[in-house]
Design a protein that fits this description.
heterotrimer; A mainly alpha; B mainly alpha; C alpha/beta; C: alpha/beta; Rossmann fold; 16 helices
Chain lengths: 312, 266, 471
């Protein structure tokens, strides 16, 4: 367990370093004078004077050699000092706090919804492998997986908001607003995870130990309860770690599509408006989210699988 | 060997190949029939219905949709080909190197791969794309940078047991060199997986490019790029649903084609 | 007479062929019944048919009765555990990989016999103690040895009180000592129940006694009491099968060993911090056949690899008395396909060797003949020939290079007894002819005693000793 935590901590540091480095390079590549830009961000475009710019230059050490600035940049990053947005002028951390709440709500709703869809579907397809319901499941899953999340979202919007007018198109005030983005994300997650659950189920019910349990005298239900659930869950939980990439990428796209004011929305906006501190902050938060949830998945695997304790 | 591989292809894989070949052919043939100017505007003809001259109608600026779609398909294919080729080459070489050389080299390469993997792919692509907005090169670099890790991981995991296993051991004892061992033992073991990954990787790179276009972080207008076209047409969904559906369907077909070609393993 | 299982005219067919052909048998209480035959003779299908778990796509005709009652496959399933049970071929795969040993037995008492948790725990405790498994209660299946896993599977299979036991190759992959333990355990089961054992091992059939049915290609070749079938076999196939059992092999005359090839002094080797062997000293002579015996996991293969220079010794030294090039110290593997590239034809692979070392391609046909191999085999890939054929081709490939030391790591443990005997004989003959030292690694002591000039025992590093037939 300690090993897992250390590994994840190193991963976290590497992630922060790479985000910091890329955004640092980015900040050097922007056209125009950096000091003027920052001064404009602080005092408003009209108030920028040469004096204000040079004060900023002095304060941020913009006259220092590049490597010193780079170290300074990383140092600030380590202290979680992320600066202020070039667009709104608000401190990044405050903006992030606000966005993170929305993202977490969306992600949690999507994961819950995808579990509600994928679990029964995957189990049924596994038990009925290669029968018609399994084939239908495969067909739908292939279709859903073949489109980017935003296409799926667009189709849902066209269908539920514009044709049927059941749900609002975009916004973030109430539960109905949450439904379509969460469903979009959930469907794209369930498309893959239902197949993983199906394969895991099939592998377990065809295994020698599953049959042997019946031969020992246990009934179907007893065998499923005693030997099915845990063995099916193990690869599925491990897979969730891999699917996280899809979750975070999906969050970015879905939030942009539905104008959901979360981290992903912030990230794509920051790229568009070249708001570097914001870009760094949102990318960093995505990365932290990724590593933290991965660590949770690792923990679940560790608790579920007694074999992992053997080696420690 | 190629013959064998073709023989082993499932009906699903054939379907995927057929979809892709059809798309490619039409995309390359379109200019020959006078649909070679994706950016030519005819503002008086905005959202013209389908006709003999404009088989797929026109968009909000009166641009020829067929020409735009054909250009977008060529762009997506070109990019995915480039990304897959470079990431596969990098991933395979590093994977074989990591599995086959000293533990220290393995650790170093592994560390680099883990660093890349510590960020979700799209976030990395957005960051890299942000370095130079609208630049094809940056998009290509960003996508390739995220894709190679997958090859690396799979190749390393396949080659590692092989390196310690009887096949290479006996080959080595029989006096064969490394190149022979790679050609006879390692390449046959990884080639199947590499081809599958290549097909999935092509699908991923097309999706990535469309995604960056969709959030205005990729290529810039007026480039005919599927994600960009979708987001630009979205405001007109009520008046021109049929025009909006076109890039959506093409994107779906391309990704579906590559996913089918990869073979249905899940 | 209490007829536990009786089968009349059982036939099992796939779409294209008959796999078991009108077989009849009766299992009587107190008398073990053993089905003897090579792989692919339809033995395992018989066990699956009795249990009612034939793979889909196979059809089954004939009557199967339990306790004198005719029953369909579905009805027989209700007998599982309480009356009828099966001991698996691969115990590791039949035990839940993530459940502690004790729990896999205790759940039967709790779930099937509806014992209270405490009573189930107590019953399990007693049963595991009787089987000598008290120490491994909390271990997971992957931590058990093959013999222990099989005993645990036995405990679990019989916990619900089944009296009819079907054991499908219960000793597969076990070394001689563990094999005998399992056979004794099974035998004790017959006293108040029935035991149907399926095996390819003549020694197992002999130890079990009772009645024997010899099967080949799905047909009964011969049947009768164990003593008569094993001592005076009538059918030619039975005679061949019995003759293939190492205990009936003729002794190979030990060779006078003259010229030393390599001397091992005080060799020690560790793996994962555990000492595998130490203080190991012996001399290998040109053309000498040396047996290496020991339990699985005791370091036999490691010793072989150390002699071949694939592993550096932990301490001690290996002195070669002549300078032997790398390609003349070779190895034969336990699993023949694992040492061939599946991507090229065997012909191509042999041609590669010939070209690499500037040999003559004309050397191949006489070797093919000596090894009783048809030249047409070489046009196939390694996956399209049988294990026995591939092992002979591996031997041919080695012989092309006139090796001075050949390590054969359990070269026949995955092969049928008749093929195994043939391979060992060819191996010994080839080694003698080419004056190549052969290190034969095996978990079958009898086999080694029959063919080796010298046997090295690696049972326990503290007690290793060397028996030298040459002295």
């Amino acid at each position: 367990m300690k090993g897992i935590l250390i590994k994840r901590l190193v991963q976290l540091l590497m992630m922060a370093w790479s985000v910091g480095t890329i955004t640092f390079i980015l900040s050097r590549m922007l056209p125009g004078d950096m000091a003027y830009r920052i001064a404009a961000g602080r005092y408003g475009d009209d108030a920028v004077t040469a004096a204000a710019a040079s004060a900023v230059r002095q304060e941020l050490g913009l006259n220092d050699p590049v490597w010193l600035q780079y170290l300074h940049w990383l140092g600030e990053l380590l202290q979680c000092n992320l600066g202020s947005s070039l667009v709104s002028g608000n401190p990044i951390t405050a903006e992030l706090q606000h966005q993170l709440g929305y993202t977490l709500i969306l992600a949690a709703a999507a994961i819950l919804l995808s579990a509600v869809i994928a679990l029964p579907l995957g189990l049924i397809c596994g038990f009925q492998a290669n029968k018609w319901i399994d084939r239908c499941g495969l067909l739908i899953s292939t279709f859903l997986r073949s489109q980017p999340v935003f296409c799926l979202g667009l189709i849902l919007i066209l269908l539920f908001s514009l044709q049927l007018k059941w749900f609002p198109v975009a916004g973030f005030d109430s539960l109905p607003h949450l439904f379509l983005p969460a469903l979009t994300l959930a469907l794209s997650l369930a498309a893959l995870s239902s197949r993983v659950i199906r394969n895991s189920t099939l592998r377990v019910i065809r295994s020698d130990y599953y049959l042997f349990s019946r031969i020992k005298g246990l009934s179907r239900q007893q065998t499923f309860r005693r030997h099915g659930i845990r063995n099916i869950a193990l690869p599925v939980v491990a897979f969730m770690g891999i699917q996280l990439v899809g979750l975070i990428e999906g969050v970015i796209m879905v939030e942009s599509l539905f104008a959901w004011p979360g981290i992903g929305h912030g990230l794509s906006h920051a790229v568009f408006s070249r708001d570097i501190p914001m870009l760094q902050g949102t990318a960093l938060t995505c990365g932290v989210l990724f590593v933290v949830i991965n660590t949770l998945v690792d923990g679940c695997c560790y608790l579920l699988d007694p074999r992992s304790k053997m080696t420690c | 060997m190629l013959k064998n591989r073709l023989k082993q292809m499932s009906p699903g894989q054939w379907t995927g190949a057929a979809i892709l070949i059809l798309l490619l052919l039409s995309a390359w043939m379109a200019p020959l029939f006078g649909h070679g100017q994706p950016n030519l505007q005819h503002l008086q003809h905005s959202f013209a219905p389908a006709s003999a001259q404009l088989p797929l109608g026109s968009d909000q600026f009166g641009r020829d949709m067929l020409a735009r779609l054909a250009a977008a398909v060529r762009l997506s294919f070109g990019l995915s080909l480039l990304c897959v080729a470079s990431s596969a080459f990098l991933g395979i070489s590093l994977g074989v190197m990591a599995a086959w050389s000293s533990q220290r080299i393995d650790a170093v390469i592994n560390f680099v791969a883990n660093t890349v993997m510590s960020l979700p792919g799209l976030v990395l692509v957005l960051l890299v794309a942000g370095l130079a907005p609208g630049s094809f090169t940056m998009l290509y670099l960003g996508i390739s940078l995220t894709l190679w890790v997958e090859y690396f991981r799979v190749v390393r995991a396949t080659v590692q047991p092989l390196v310690n296993g009887p096949e290479l051991q006996s080959s080595m004892m029989l006096g064969f060199g490394r190149w022979y061992q790679f050609r006879r033992h390692i390449w046959p073991a990884i080639s199947g997986n590499v081809l599958t990954l290549a097909a999935f990787g092509a699908a991923t790179s097309i999706l990535m490019m469309a995604s960056t276009g969709f959030v205005y972080a990729g290529l810039k207008p007026p480039t005919a790029e599927l994600g960009l076209m979708i987001v630009e047409l979205f405001p007109y969904f009520a008046d021109a649903t049929w025009v909006l559906l076109q890039p959506l369907c093409i994107l779906l077909l391309m990704v579906l084609g590559f996913n089918l070609l990869a073979g249905q393993k899940a | 007479m209490n007829e536990l299982i009786s089968i009349k005219n059982l036939s099992i067919r796939s779409a294209s062929e008959t796999l078991v052909d009108s077989l009849s048998l009766t299992l009587i209480q107190g008398e073990p019944l053993t089905i003897l035959g090579e792989t692919g003779s339809g033995k395992s299908l018989l066990a699956q048919a009795i249990m009612g778990i034939l793979p889909a796509g196979l059809s089954c005709q004939g009557d199967i009765a339990l306790n004198g009652q005719r029953m369909t496959a579905k009805e027989r399933r209700h007998y599982w555990g309480r009356h009828l049970s099966m001991l698996p071929q691969e115990p590791w795969q039949s035990l839940d990989p993530v459940m502690q040993s004790r729990e896999q037995v205790a759940e039967v008492y709790r779930e099937v016999l509806a014992y209270s948790a405490a009573a189930a725990q107590k019953a399990t405790q007693t049963q595991l103690q009787q089987l000598g498994l008290a120490d491994i209660q909390h271990k997971l299946p992957s931590q058990l040895s093959g013999g222990m896993a099989q005993r645990l599977a036995f405990a679990a299979a019989t916990a619900a009180g089944a009296r009819m036991i079907i054991a499908d190759e219960p000793t597969k992959g076990l070394d001689t000592g563990q094999r005998d333990g399992i056979v004794q355990l099974l035998k004790s089961q017959t006293e108040n129940g029935g035991l149907l054992t399926i095996t390819h091992d003549v020694a197992v059939a002999q130890q079990l006694g009772g009645r024997i049915i010899v099967m080949r290609h799905g047909k009964v070749v011969e049947q009768g009491s164990a003593s008569s079938v094993l001592t005076t076999p009538i059918a030619a196939y039975t005679q061949e099968l019995i003759a293939a059992a190492p205990c009936y092999w003729t002794d190979v005359t030990p060779q006078q060993c003259h010229q030393p090839l390599l001397t091992i002094r005080n060799l020690a080797q560790q793996r994962n911090g555990k000492t595998l062997f130490r203080h190991l000293s012996f001399t290998v002579h040109h053309g000498e056949i040396i047996g290496l015996y020991g339990d699985s996991g005791c370091g036999k293969s490691t010793l072989g690899d150390t002699l071949l220079g694939l592993l550096a010794p932990n301490s001690g030294n290996i002195e070669w008395h002549a300078d032997i090039p790398r390609h003349q110290k070779l190895k034969l593997y336990q699993d023949p396909p694992s040492s061939f590239s599946p991507a090229a034809s065997l012909q191509t692979l042999l041609a590669d060797v010939v070209r690499r070392h500037g040999l003559q391609a004309e050397q191949i046909p006489p070797l093919l003949q000596a090894l009783a191999l048809s030249p047409s085999l070489l046009t196939r890939s390694s996956h399209d020939v049988s294990g026995g054929e591939l092992q002979r081709i591996a031997l041919l490939r080695a012989m092309l290079l006139s090796p001075k030391l050949l390590v054969a790591d359990e070269p026949t443990s995955r092969l049928d007894p008749i093929t195994a005997k043939q391979i060992i004989q060819l191996l010994v003959k080839a080694a003698r002819q080419q004056q190549c030292a052969l290190l034969l690694i095996s978990h079958d002591e009898t086999q080694l005693k029959k063919v080796c000039d010298q046997i090295i025992y690696l049972q326990d590093y503290a007690r290793e000793n060397v028996i030298n037939h040459c002295d």
